[in-house]
Specification:
Layout lengths: L11 E7 L5 H14 L4 E6 L9 E3 L5 E3 L1 E3 L2 H10 L6 E4 L9 H10 L3 E7 L11 H7 L2 E5 L1 E2 L6 E2 L1 E6 L2 E2 L13 E6 L9
Parallel strand pairs: 1-7, 1-8, 2-5, 2-6, 6-7
Antiparallel strand pairs: 3-4, 9-10, 11-12, 11-13
């Protein structure tokens, strides 16, 4: 992310994005911790649907952890923010693609009110189509950090997520959001990625 002059007007959006296994969550946690260490009052949210490692923490694949408030909708985030008596300097939202589409407008409102919003999410789904919310936040964010991974197949630069079901690439009629199940994901480069059929 760019260096910010915090004496200027506050209120902007930072987006951390890329494919799976690119280190998005580690970067998100690092960024949130930077604001916390500086004495900012930070509220962090995660989608309740994401229970892979913890219900009350954001946990990266590498094991970094950050306490978070699990929410089921953007309305819950708005209610918590409106109801708090504390001044909120920074709002962090993990896995924003798993939250309803109203989150996009809410993020914009928060930034316009002088809150720094740091958002993390996948840029593309397993079909390599733009993921909901992230595609819209991309154009409103002041700062975007796009990360890549290492291709599981060839070791090249990966920017796509391959969903594997029973040892084969998922079919295109599989649900877009599937946080758990008998499948797994791999980072793939453009040449090793297999478009679902």
């Amino acid at each position: 992310m760019a260096n910010h002059n915090l004496k200027n007007k506050k209120g902007w959006v930072e987006l951390i994005t890329g494919c799976m296994f690119a280190g998005k969550t580690d970067e998100f946690i690092r960024r949130i911790n930077t604001f916390t260490y500086a004495g900012f009052n930070v509220f962090v949210f995660k989608p309740a649907i994401d229970k892979r490692y913890s219900e009350a923490e954001i946990v990266s694949h590498a094991g970094a952890k950050l306490k978070a408030i699990a929410v089921s909708s953007s309305n819950e985030i708005e209610k918590i923010v409106v109801d708090t008596k504390e001044k909120i300097d920074v709002i962090g939202i993990d896995e924003v693609q798993f939250i309803d589409t109203n989150i996009v407008n809410l993020i914009e409102e928060f930034a316009n009110r002088g809150i720094i919003v740091v958002v993390n999410g996948l840029d593309k789904d397993f079909k390599s189509d733009p993921f909901q919310n992230v595609d819209k936040i991309l154009v409103q964010a002041e700062y975007v950090k796009k990360l890549s991974a290492i291709c599981h197949e060839c070791g090249g630069n990966a920017n796509r997520t391959q969903r594997i079901v029973n040892g084969k690439p998922a079919r295109k009629d599989e649900p877009i959001i599937l946080v758990s199940g008998n499948d797994h994901y791999e980072a793939r480069c453009r040449h090793c990625y297999i478009k679902p059929e």
